[in-house]
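Try this one yourself first.
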């Protein structure tokens, strides 16, 4: 079973480079994992955060729609990013999903694990 790596990137949500910085940071950590991560999870409290917050502006309308439709989007440097909420992530864990690579969180608490 794979062990997820949780990454919380404490950045200014109004900074235009925030999204690319977060993706690059998560990808760098995922690339060091053994085996390297191929799936990244953008974890938010609700689906609506993809469109009603600055996150929606950073990822763009096309990417937000894809993530809301449970489709993955490409991550620069390789891999796929998908979206989950705490509720849907718990549901996939109950089903025995072990495909989690390195989750990428939109929260900005400054903690990493």
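Now uncover the answer:
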């Amino acid at each position: 079973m794979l062990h997820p790596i949780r990454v919380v990137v404490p950045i200014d949500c109004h900074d235009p480079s925030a999204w690319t910085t977060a993706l690059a940071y998560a990808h760098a950590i995922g690339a060091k994992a053994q085996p390297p991560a191929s799936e990244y999870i953008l974890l938010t409290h609700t689906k609506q955060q993809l469109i009603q917050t600055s996150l929606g502006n950073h990822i763009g309308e096309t990417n937000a729609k894809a993530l809301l439709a449970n489709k993955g989007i490409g991550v620069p440097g390789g891999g796929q990013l998908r979206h989950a909420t705490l509720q849907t992530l718990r549901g996939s864990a109950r089903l025995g999903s072990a495909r989690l690579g390195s989750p990428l969180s939109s929260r900005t608490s400054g903690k990493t694990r």
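Discussion: The longest strand covers residues 39-44. Residues 10 and 109 are 6 Å apart (CA to CA).
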